[in-house]
Amino acid sequence: MRQIDPFIAGDAAGGGSVRPENGRAGDVFDPSTGQVQARVAFSTAADLDRAVVAAAAAQPGWAATNPQRRARVLFRFRELLEANMQDLAELLASEHGKVVADARGDVLRGLEVIEFSCGIPHAMKGEYTQGAGPGIDVYAMRQPLGVVAGITPFNFPAMIPMWMFGPAIAAGNAFILKPSERDPSVPVRLAELMLEAGLPEGILQVVHGDKEMVDAILDHPAISAVSFVGSSDIAHYVYGRGAAAGKRVQAMGGAKNHGIVMPDADLDQVVHDLCGAAFGSAGERCMALPVVVPVGDATADALRERLIPAMAALKVGVSTDPDAHYGPVVNAAHKARIEDWIQTGVDEGAELVVDGRGLVLQGHEHGFFVGPTLFDRVTTAMRAYREEIFGPVLQIVRAPDFETALRLPSAHQYGNGVSIFTRNGHAAREFAQRVNVGMVGINVPIPVPVAYHSFGGWKRSGFGDTNQYGMEGVRFWTKVKTVTQRWPDGGEGDNAFLIPTS
Questions:
Q1: CA 138: distance to chain centroid?
Q2: What 3-state DSSP class applies to 402?
Q3: Which of 128, 109, 208, 209 lies closest to 166 in space, CA to CA?
Q4: How far apart are CA 400 and CA 302, in angstroms?
Q5: pTM, entire model
Q6: Angle at CA 113, nearest 5°, toward 112 and 116?
Q7: 4 Cβ neighbours under 8 A, 6+ residues apart
Q8: CA 417 – CA 415 distance, rounded (Å)
Q9: Contact (Cβ atoms closer than 8 angstroms) between residue 164 and residue 46
Q10: I need a surface site. Which of 2, 220, 427, 472 has the fewest CB within 10 A?
Q11: Pairwise CA distance, residues 215 & 412, whole Å
Q12: Are 447 and 439 in contact (CB under 8 A)?
């Protein structure tokens, strides 16, 4: 059976990657069949030490490389991503379960951050003030932190690693990546492509593992900063433990994104958008739209009437099916968790309009499939509303008016994303201004910002003060040094001959 090893390279690492000897490993499934397709070897603390030693040895030379030359490596990496796009997408789909078209989107959204990072010569420019005082000039420079790390989730095994290591490496850091053990092959392949693009050995290392490796990274004294994406409980833990160890930490957590539907919205467009945003990638996205809030019962009834046939038309299939709208969830445990949440909603009194449990595909009876599910008359008192389900489950929460609809996402424990669907510019502007959520879409169902802005939620969706990618990412992966200088005027010193005299 195929084994996935850590990617640790560089002379200081002892001459290349070595298979861990602790015997700990995890199963990597094919979600479409339910069968184990590979084993991922969990790295040891000694593996992490080797990776960090190699990274620390390589990082000063990489930081001293001028930024335009660092950018050229990323330009070449971008070309390799495009050349290997289909292979990467198929590999990603085979371990995650998302359909190949979604997997290509995963790679493409990461590539966009790499493209932004190619502009690092401009992004790293400092500030300068001439004449801040008598004969005094002040300037600030951005410098890399050193050895940094990223801990990434299973749901975007290409995009989120590139969100992190793109700007971090461009800024001159060395990067230790700990991807999800559920679908680790694509992160290793990205590291291989970075080497092929000309990145020095040791600048990007990949270690595997579970909580033991997470803790080892958080506690390692030579790692200066950690970026994390995952559930909110773990994000809170990562933030607290990393900060206690003196690290800079950004930790992005879960979500319960709402879509507000005003009475004047184009319902046909809303239904189309909801089917993609709620059920695409089997709902395994922190920017999915699992809660829809129609304003007024007439709006809710009309929306529900359109949603039912639209959901019935969705095709759930294996990840390689080009006609499938979405594929299986990542593993059996996650399928069971989603189905438990559906039962919780039923037990709490929500109306189960469409039940996606028990979906079986002929020839793939052991696959991890969950059909599209719809609840109506969900209330804010229900646990199934308050918590993140992370599956293809859409909940209708009816609101009598705009103010009630505005309060729902604002009062929720999560504050990642929110959308409003309306033709009324005043309502949209008022909503965007007042809602207590980090990312807002106006007639946009999944408001993930473009790569030259930044990504970040509020409340329990984000711990730390700096967002992902864009200039916020550059700021997170660098520190500012400010220099105040004054040069003496002439005199009898050793350098007096350099001063022209009249």
A1: 37
A2: helix
A3: 109
A4: 15
A5: 0.94
A6: 90
A7: 28, 38, 39, 40, 41, 184, 185, 188, 208
A8: 6
A9: no
A10: 2
A11: 30
A12: yes
Q: What is the pLDDT of residues 70-91, one digit of tens each?
A: 999 999 999 999 999 999 999 9
d(CA 134, CA 125): 25
Q: Which amino acid is at 321?
A: D
CA distance 228 to 84: 26
- Tell me the mean pLDDT in the region 462-486: 95
pLDDT band at 23 (very low <50, low <70, confident <90, very high): confident
**Quick one: the chain helix, strand, coil %, rounded to 5?**
40, 20, 40
Kind of pairing, strands 458-459 and 414-415? Answer: antiparallel
Angle between helices 425-434 and 402-411 (to 10 degrees): 30
Size (the chain), residues = 502
Q: Which pLDDT does position 18 carry in this prediction?
A: 59
Identified catalytic residue from 286, 288, 338, 427: 286
Q: How far apart are CA 76 and CA 485, in angstroms?
A: 39
Mean pLDDT over 455-463 rounds to 96
Residue 250 CA to residue 167 CA, distance in Å, equals: 14
Q: Is residue 430 within 8 Å of 411, Cβ to Cβ? A: no
Write down the pLDDT at residue 499: 52
Q: What is the spatial distance between Cα 418 and Cα 428, in angstroms, rounded to a whole number? A: 12
d(Cα 395, Cα 207) in Å, to the nearest integer? 38
Read off the pLDDT band of 9 (50, 70, 90): confident
For 188-219, the pLDDT digits (tens) are 999 999 999 999 999 999 999 999 999 999 99
> Any catalytic annotation for residue 118?
no
Both tokens of residue 102?
A: 């979604």
- In this structure, are residues 393 and 285 in contact, taking their beta carbons and an 8 Å threshold? no
Q: For residues 318 and 486, what is the distance between their CA atoms, to the nearest angstrom? A: 68
Q: Is the dihedral of CA 345, 348, 350, 353 positive or negative?
A: positive
8 A C-beta contact, residue 45 and residue 217: no
